[in-house]
Design brief:
- The chain has 164 residues and is of the alpha+beta class.
- It has a three-stranded antiparallel β-sheet with strand order 1-2-3.
- The protein has helices spanning 2-16, 38-44, 49-85, 102-142; strands at residues 21-24, 28-31, 34-36, 148-154, 157-163.
- Helix 3 packs antiparallel against helix 4.
- It is elongated.
Length: 164
């Protein structure tokens, strides 16, 4: 019976220690397993401008990084298509017109610039999610569910400490 009670208390302690908001790759934020949109974050945390501004700046960095990445890839693809389409070949299979490779380098440069931009957006969104969780935990403590559960161990043994 003791083990049943201890395991129940331990599991109930773990259920309250879970985070309300979670961050997943791609800048997606989930609340209790359901994805929430940017507009929901803005309306929920309208009284906390630090959280909203941090989240918005992370999303902006993601958008700018995507624009740079896909425009660089697009420039490379268009230049390659243009080169293949307008290829002048004589009867011996030699090209008669020399074309510049500048646009390949421009496209590659733009794509490379997008990498640090895209890496930085996750840090901002993760920080905003951490602030969201802190805010949610402070609201739970202020609503009356103010207790703490700890597992204690000393030379006499181990036990469960519940503080109300």
């Amino acid at each position: 019976m003791k083990t049943l009670i201890y395991s129940f208390l331990l599991l109930s302690c773990m259920s309250y220690s879970q985070e309300t908001y979670t961050f997943k790759s791609g800048g997606r934020v989930f609340e209790n397993g359901e994805r929430i949109k940017t507009s929901q974050i803005e309306s929920t945390f309208k009284d906390k401008p630090e959280i909203v501004n941090l989240y918005k700046s992370g999303r902006t960095k993601k958008t700018v990084g995507n624009v740079f990445l896909y425009s660089g890839i697009g420039i490379i693809a268009l230049k390659h298509y243009d080169r293949v389409k307008n290829q002048n070949v004589d009867a011996y299979g030699n090209t008669t017109k020399k074309e510049s490779n500048v646009m390949y380098f421009v496209g590659a440069g733009i794509s490379i610039v997008s990498i640090p931009i895209k890496i930085g957006f996750q840090k901002k969104i993760k920080k905003s999610v951490a602030l969201m969780n802190e805010d949610a935990n402070s609201k739970i403590k202020s609503t009356g569910f103010n207790y703490e559960t700890n597992i204690m161990a000393n030379s006499n043994g181990f036990g469960l400490k519940i503080t109300f």
